[in-house]
Amino acid sequence: MKSIALIARTIFPSQSPRSSRSTNLAIALSENGFQVNIYCLKGTYDYSKFENKYNIKVHNLGNSRMGNGNSDTGIKSKTLLFRVFNKLFGQTLLFPEIELLFMIFKKRNQILKNDYFISIAAPFSIHFGMNLIHQKEKIWISDCGDPFMGNPHKKYPFYLKYLENSWAKNTHYITIPTQKAIPAYPAKYKEKLIVIPQGFPITENLDKNYHKNKIPTFCYSGTIYTDHRNPSDFLNFLTTLTIDYKFIVYTKNTDFFHAFKEKLGDKLVILNYIRREDLLVELSKMDFLVNFKNESSIQMPSKLIDYYMSNRPILEVSNTMSAAEKTATIEYLDYKFPDFNYDLSPFDIRNIANKFINLLNQKNG
After folding, report:
1. What is the pLDDT of residue 122?
2. In this structure, what are the phi and psi dihedrals at residue 92, rounded to the nearest 5 degrees?
3. Which residue from 73, 202, 276, 278 has the least number of CB within 10 angstroms?
4. What is the C-alpha separation between 165 and 94, in angstroms, rounded?
5. pLDDT value, residue 364
6. Strand, helix or coil at 101?
7. Segments in the chain forming alpha helices (H)
């Protein structure tokens, strides 16, 4: 039985796109006959049931001293010292994620016993750590949620491009979620770029949960970024409407939405994240869902896959709402939806795992 080392910052119970990617991919690879060894910041979570159920071994990269969150606790409390260091060195020295590079190096003897390697970012220090210990004769896939130097929302100093180029030169494949992201990676290594979308176990028959609500009820689930995924325009537009409705948000950015609670009152329901399995059920009960577009075209929010799976119409909204988007909002609130039919097969974790396996089975050129 061939073994795969899957290296990531976190896996479940952490709730993030990269944690889901790591967990779902590990399970699917194990079901395809590989011995999967996960290396992550596991924290104190007891993975014994998970390991026995899926024949996966979860190894701890270590205990972070710089504030990197574990799989069971998420981001650690940001102390004053952390905030100072993050302000001074967050971009220039990749604080605090740079610590993961050294953690991987310390675990090199254990990691290198495996036959294949899959490193998962963000953060990119996971890839950079593997770059320190990689073995050319063994296939290494670098899976990326977002680009590094080409990320339009993060500006790193020029000298870090040498780290990126060294990594891109040495890894065998770079898997990215969308074709549009290709220009954001080093052009010299374009032939290594393989598009493999985010994958999830497909939940069937969620459409049976939907019954038209007494008042228009719609939902957003996800993170807010004030610079490139900002719903302020949409929320302000909602305050101008006199019709009755209910807008439900599942987010960790609860403070952002509370700023609009006084104006919207009971029309706005603010909830924290819930388990993905439960969220899918709740999404499928909505009259429609709202997606706040990324300002960048090179990134695809993984939440859209959950939206597609819930089989509900999706209202797309930009940071600055256009007249057409305002008109569309009124139409959606009047239950006038465009036809929708989502093909989930590109996001089926079984198909995603097969794409990775095909890369692993290719001979190292």
Report:
1. 86
2. -75, -35
3. 278
4. 16
5. 45
6. helix
7. 17-31, 48-54, 80-89, 98-106, 108-111, 125-133, 160-170, 232-239, 254-258, 261-264, 276-284, 303-310, 323-333, 349-361
* Cβ-contact 302, 17 below 8 angstroms: yes
Q: What is this structure's pTM?
A: 0.82
Q: Note the pLDDT of residue 78.
A: 59
Cα–Cα nearest to 345, from 205, 199, 175, 179: 199
Q: Which two tokens stand for residue 147?
A: 């680009």
The span from the CA of 211 to the CA of 271, in Å, is 22
Nearest residue to 223 (alpha-carbon basis) of 254, 246, 192, 199: 254
The per-type count for the chain, helices as H runs and strands as E runs, is 14, 12
d(CA 359, CA 222): 31
The pLDDT assigned to 207 comes to 85
- The amino acid that residue 68 corresponds to is N
How many Å apart are CA 225 and CA 294, to the nearest integer? Answer: 9
Measure Cα distances from 135 to 106, 129, 188, 256, 335 in Å.
16, 13, 21, 46, 57
∠ CA(186), CA(176), CA(1), 5° rounding?
115
Low-confidence ranges of the chain (pLDDT < 70): 74-93, 227-228, 295-301, 363-365
pLDDT 10s digits, 287-332: 999 999 876 555 566 778 889 999 999 999 998 999 999 999 999 9
Biggest CA–CA distance in the chain, Å, is: 66
Residue 315 contacts residue 321 (beta carbons within 8 Å):
no
DSSP 194: E
| Angle ∠(41,45,46) on CA atoms, nearest 5 | 125
> Which DSSP category does 74 fall into?
B
Which residue, 307, 114, 312, 131, is CA-closest to 212?
A: 312
Identify whether the C-beta of residue 115 lies closer than 8 Å to the C-beta of residue 4.
yes
Taking only the tens place, the pLDDT of each residue in 107-156 is 999 999 999 999 999 899 999 999 999 988 899 999 998 887 877 777 88
